[in-house]
Amino acid sequence: MTIRRPSRRMSHLLGGALIIVIGLAGQPAQAAPQHGAQPLAAAFDRAAAGSDVPRDLLAALGYAETRLDGHGGEPSASGGYGVMHLTSNPKVRTLDEAARRTRLDRAELRTRDAANVAGAAAVLRSYADAAGLTAAQRDDVNQWYGPIARYGGSADAATARLYADSVYDLLARGFIATTAGGEVSVDGRPVAPRRGRYADVAPLGTGDFGTLSTDYGPAAWVPANSSNYTVSSRESAYPINYIVIHTMQGSYAGSISWFQNAAAGTSAHYLLRSSDGAVTQMVRDKDIAWHAGNWTYNTQSIGIEHEGYVDNASWYTDAMYRSSAALTRYLCDKYGIPKTRNNIIGHNQVPGATHTDPGSNWNWTYYMQLVTGGTTPPPTAWSTIVDNTTAGRFTASANWSTSTYSAQRYGADYRYANPVAASDTAWYKVNIPATATYRVEVWYPAVVGYNTSTPYIVATTSGNQTVSVNQTANGGAWRSLGTFTLAAGDANKVGVSRWSGSTGYVIADAIRVTRV
Question: What is the CA radius of gyration of the chain?
Answer without folding.
Answer: 24
